[in-house]
Amino acid sequence: MQQATFDSRGSRIRWTEVPGAGPARVYLHGLGSMSAVYHAHIAARPELTGRRSLFVDLPGHGTSDRPADFGYTLEDHADAVGAALDAAGATGAELIAHSMGGAVAIVLAHRRPDLVSRLVLTEANLDAFPPSTAASSGIAAYGEDEFVAREHARVLEAVGPLWAATMRLADPRALHRSAVGLRKGSDPVMRTLLEGLAVDRVFLQGELSGELAGRERLETAGVRVVTVPGAGHNVMFDNPDAFAAAVAGTG
């Protein structure tokens, strides 16, 4: 495990690293998740081994610190990941990022283009104010203190055992602030940033999640959108073959 300081109080963002050739592949998780849990089985596949791989836990999640005075906005998360990549010497990295992690990756690619050479986004949040059915909207609908005191336990029950296994490791206040930041989105919004980036961009959409809004415009901007058969939001679990092929650049 490696770590780097990401704020003025010495809080640390942490990641598990597998050595290998560059450019590094950096895996980022979604809201209430952990990177290694969602991506280690992908990085270990024969077509992907041999590359340096970093499984980064966002602030407030997994093994990373959870400072009470941190904002947990998309920009805050992106800057923390940037601090990790700076410490790791991982310039020109490929970011493989899921859900909220995809939004963080887009913001990082915009703010620190020296760190990012490619984006593989899995059902990343592209727009502010997602529908009320989205978990981030449900969490952000409560006040912070109300969520921490009463609603956190209810949400853990509602999301099911798979997601709850990692969500219960996230700090409740960090979880709420991250959800609020995700609902607010970046400025300009993530979709606009993604369309304007010059790096190689792949967007994976699970077939079971329905058609991606604004797909044609994304493709016109050079984003390769792939609909993954038989997959929902967690493409890396539902169709690992297709997911690994997209990361490898063969699918």
Could you explain the architecture of this structure?
The longest helix has 15 residues, at 74-88. The chain contains 11 helices and 8 strands. It is globular. Helix content is 41%, strand content 20%. The protein is an alpha/beta fold and 251 residues long. Strand 1 (2-5) and strand 2 form a beta hairpin. It has an 8-stranded mixed beta sheet with strand order 1-2-4-3-5-6-7-8, with helices on both faces.
Secondary structural class: alpha/beta
Strand neighbour order, sheet with most strands:
1-2-4-3-5-6-7-8
Task: Give the end-to-end Cα distance, rounded to a whole number of Å.
Answer: 31 Å
Largest sheet: 8 strands, mixed
Average pLDDT: 97
Number of strands: 8
Question: What percent strand?
Answer: 15-25%
Radius of gyration over C-alpha positions, nearest whole angstrom? 17 Å
Order of helices and strands: EEEHEHEHEHHHHHEHEHH
Spans of 5+ residues with little confidence (pLDDT < 50)?
none
Q: Estimate the global geometry from the Cα principal axes.
A: globular
Please tally the helical runs, counting DSSP H or I stretches of 4 or more residues: 11
Question: How much helix is in the residues?
Answer: 40-55%
Short account of what is shown:
This protein is of the alpha/beta class and 251 residues long.
Search tags:
251 residues; alpha/beta; eight-stranded mixed sheet; 11 helices; globular
Question: Which SSEs are present, and which pair or pack?
Answer:
Elements: E1 2-5, E2 12-18, E3 21-28, H1 35-43, E4 51-57, H2 74-88, E5 93-98, H3 100-111, E6 116-122, H4 135-140, H5 144-158, H6 161-167, H7 172-184, H8 190-196, E7 200-206, H9 215-220, E8 224-228, H10 235-238, H11 240-248
Parallel strand pairs: 3-4, 3-5, 5-6, 6-7, 7-8
Antiparallel strand pairs: 1-2, 2-4
